[in-house]
Amino acid sequence: MAYQNYHTMTPIIKTHEEEATELNQRMHNLPTEVFNDIYDLAMTPDETEIKLDRKYKPPKQLQIDRLSRKQFGEKYYNLTHFTVPWLNPGRLVSWLTHLTPEHRAAVRCINVSRVIDLSLKAGSPELAAMRWKLRLTARLCRSILRSCARELGEEKVAVHSTMEELRFRVNVRRDTDGPVEGLELDLFV
Fold first, then answer.
1. Total number of domains constituting the chain
2. Which domain of life is it from (predicted)?
């Protein structure tokens, strides 16, 4: 802790706990309607699509306290569509395993997408390998989420089937530098 005056030892910097307690007291001293409006703005996640790439950082609201993390986390993981822009089962599985069981159970939509060249014909080995890798990713994710649902089954009244909304998309481009076409291969597993 830093001190303003060495002789009187008067503190000028508050600790994190002191600041958090003071902010909490000020927030709860607000009129109820104002407090509820601020809380709703700060703690209600938007329905959005998030890329799970190397730059992904969980929202700050998950770092406030346990109660806030529980309440915000359920909404966040329920409303957010997570997109994995590569075919890397390890990264997706790693992300899922680092979530708490409650947050894993709240995940509703995961998109795994990949842009491929149209030169991959219907019977090509590359396309067959890609389909196999997509199915492997789906099976790994399904296994993790189902085991999470089993763990939580006794604690929750009903556990939804998160895997119904797990989508795997492959967008096709005509040439290497061309625009991505709106074609999708049906790879629901």
1. 1
2. Eukaryota
